[in-house]
Task: inverse folding
């Protein structure tokens, strides 16, 4: 079933088991620090689920966003200083042209009228052409350099975001939907890219033009300049209104587009279930709702722009009309020259034209700001399972696994494991059986260190897993699940997934060792066969054999199989069973299975109930014990299910 909820599981990412905290150290520096707001913890992605954004909270989010943007631009300071120099030259050339027009009218035309020649006018015209050429070259240089910086910033941000998403723990990804991950990585980055590519240069030029023009207006004619300044109060009021309203509107726009992406991704990812349960009409209804929310948010944004931009133009035209009327009377009285009035009107037009660009930039800026708030929230999340600063070396692992007085809870107050003690000698194969919710998969996740214990510790060869470097742990402990996820690429690529440097010969030997080479070599391209999306060209049994070959090639000291055969039919399971005996030889193994045919190859069986071991022994010994034994009862029920 799909959902339009973009907040993840109940409690949000900020609930226990979540991962927000301070920034992570430089191996994964994100440039974002923690922000505490309104006396509550709105750090990380928690702010995405806020119903109302208070003024203090908005300020904190903007501070966090600016900090991120500053960290992205820090390495480009030299280039930015050069851009400032270029844009100053460009604006100086632009501002000089109206003044040259004044000189041309006041000093160039009278000599022509008096028959004294046109040298002055020609000279002024030549200088105007030089200014135009300088302005053009400076503009081109600014656009090229700023575009290059913008693309480098976006490239760095994508790299940080992708790396950080990979480093965040499974607890985060359990709550933060894949649709939101995609929204942060695509539409939000696109919004920032649009601002850097097309909006930022317009803003810089517009601001410098307006400041420079306002200064020249006052110097050119103080009385006309003061009349022009009458436009400032309504301009300031209109701009503040637009800034306030658009900030809320574009934050809403980013939220609604995320909802659209979430629903689309979940529907397409689960398309088989959607079609199997004839869910298409209901999904279309939900999509129509979230799509309509997105349309309304965008319509609101366009409505604001539709009021702001004509308002700016109206104020500008009214101001120009007032200046023209007053200037004409003063020119008739000889108080100002015609050249001064012409230059003043050109400058005034130059002053108000950038206001249109500023309004368009605001449109882009608010969208990018809302996107940057969400991206910075993700980058502020700290991996729950951060590497220790002083890892204990473990070059060779024997595979002795233990849980010592271990407790764990996904939700505070609801323990899944309570004070569990478990020891697995090196080289032993242990099967965990029990009803759903007994704690089997939780034990597997703790041994794999997808989670840390709430109390107690999990160890490998007597070393607390939290004291091992992550790459060391992943090299020695591998988990194979029923999902047997295959990535786009060839079969060989998927087998060498855990060892990218493995040779083709090593890949083939691993496949042969677990019996997968027969079906692989029968395929048209053999090991070079493309598996397509999620291994769609292979059967469930074939996908599982590829996953086993991948684990065999990784050669871990500890192998965990979590319901690795649950989705297989009987013939496929028999094929996989033969592979299991090979892959489990001479290594520690933890098997979680409801199918007891898989459990029969174990050296030892642990029966779990409510997070505690209630029965243990060899498979044959527990069956022979009979009576009220739990494993014997499970075995009898399994035999009956096969009848």
Result:
């Amino acid at each position: 079933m799909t959902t339009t909820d973009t907040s993840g599981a109940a409690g949000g990412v900020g609930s226990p088991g979540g991962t927000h905290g301070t920034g992570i150290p430089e191996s994964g520096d994100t440039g974002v620090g923690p922000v505490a707001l309104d006396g509550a913890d709105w750090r990380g992605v928690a702010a995405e689920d806020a119903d109302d954004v208070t003024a203090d909270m908005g300020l904190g989010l903007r501070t966090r966003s600016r900090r991120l943007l500053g960290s992205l631009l820090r390495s480009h300071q030299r280039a930015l200083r050069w851009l400032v120099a270029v844009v100053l030259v460009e604006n100086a050339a632009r501002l000089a042209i109206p003044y040259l027009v004044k000189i041309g009218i006041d000093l160039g035309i009278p000599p022509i009228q008096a028959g004294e020649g046109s040298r002055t006018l020609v000279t002024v015209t030549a200088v105007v052409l030089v200014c135009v050429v300088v302005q053009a070259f400076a503009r081109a240089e600014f656009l090229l350099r700023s575009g290059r910086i913008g693309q480098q910033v976006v490239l760095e941000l994508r790299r940080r975001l992708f790396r950080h998403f990979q480093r965040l723990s499974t607890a985060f990804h359990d709550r933060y939907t894949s649709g939101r991950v995609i929204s942060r990585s695509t539409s939000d980055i696109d919004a920032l890219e649009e601002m850097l590519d097309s909006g930022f240069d317009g803003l810089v030029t517009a601001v410098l033009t307006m400041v420079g023009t306002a200064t020249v207006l006052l110097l050119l004619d103080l009385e006309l300049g003061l009349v022009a300044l009458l436009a400032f109060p309504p301009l300031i009021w209109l701009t503040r209104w637009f800034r306030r309203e658009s900030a809320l509107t574009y934050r809403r726009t980013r939220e609604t587009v995320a909802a659209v992406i979430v629903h689309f991704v979940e529907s397409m990812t689960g398309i088989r279930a959607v079609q199997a349960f004839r869910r298409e009409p209901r999904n279309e209804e939900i999509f129509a709702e979230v799509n309509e929310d997105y349309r309304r948010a965008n319509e609101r944004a366009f409505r604001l722009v539709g009021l702001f931009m004509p308002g700016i133009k109206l104020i500008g035209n009214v101001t120009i009309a007032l200046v023209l009327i007053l200037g004409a009377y003063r020119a008739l009285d000889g108080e100002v020259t015609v050249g001064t009035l012409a230059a003043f009107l050109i400058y005034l037009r130059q002053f108000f034209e950038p206001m249109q660009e500023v309004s368009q930039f605001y449109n882009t800026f608010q969208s990018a700001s809302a996107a940057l708030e969400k991206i910075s929230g993700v980058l502020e999340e700290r991996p729950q399972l951060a590497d220790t600063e002083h890892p204990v070396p473990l070059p060779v692992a024997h595979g002795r696994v233990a849980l010592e007085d271990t407790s764990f809870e996904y939700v505070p107050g609801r323990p899944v494991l309570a004070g569990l003690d478990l020891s697995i000698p090196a080289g032993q194969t242990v099967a965990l059986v029990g009803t759903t919710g007994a704690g089997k998969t939780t034990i597997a996740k703790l041994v794999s260190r997808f989670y840390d214990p709430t109390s107690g510790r999990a160890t490998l060869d007597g070393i607390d897993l939290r004291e091992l470097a992550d790459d060391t742990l992943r090299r020695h402990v591998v988990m194979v699940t029923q999902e047997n996820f295959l990535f786009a690429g060839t079969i060989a690529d998927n087998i060498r997934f855990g060892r990218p440097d493995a040779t083709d010969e090593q890949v083939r030997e691993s496949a042969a060792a677990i019996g997968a080479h027969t079906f692989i070599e029968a395929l048209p391209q053999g090991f070079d066969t493309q598996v397509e999306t999620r291994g769609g060209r292979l059967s469930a049994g074939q996908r599982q054999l590829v996953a086993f070959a991948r684990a065999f090639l990784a050669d871990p000291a500890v192998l965990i199989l979590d319901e690795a055969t649950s989705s297989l039919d009987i013939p496929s399971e028999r094929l996989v069973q033969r592979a299991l005996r090979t892959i489990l030889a001479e290594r520690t193994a933890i098997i979680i299975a409801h199918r007891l045919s898989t459990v029969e190859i174990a050296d030892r069986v642990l029966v779990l109930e409510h997070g505690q071991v209630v029965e243990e022994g060899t498979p044959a010994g527990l069956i022979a014990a009979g009576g009220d034994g739990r494993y014997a009862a499970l075995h009898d029920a399994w035999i009956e299910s096969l009848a």
In short: The CA atoms of residues 7 and 49 lie 6 Å apart.
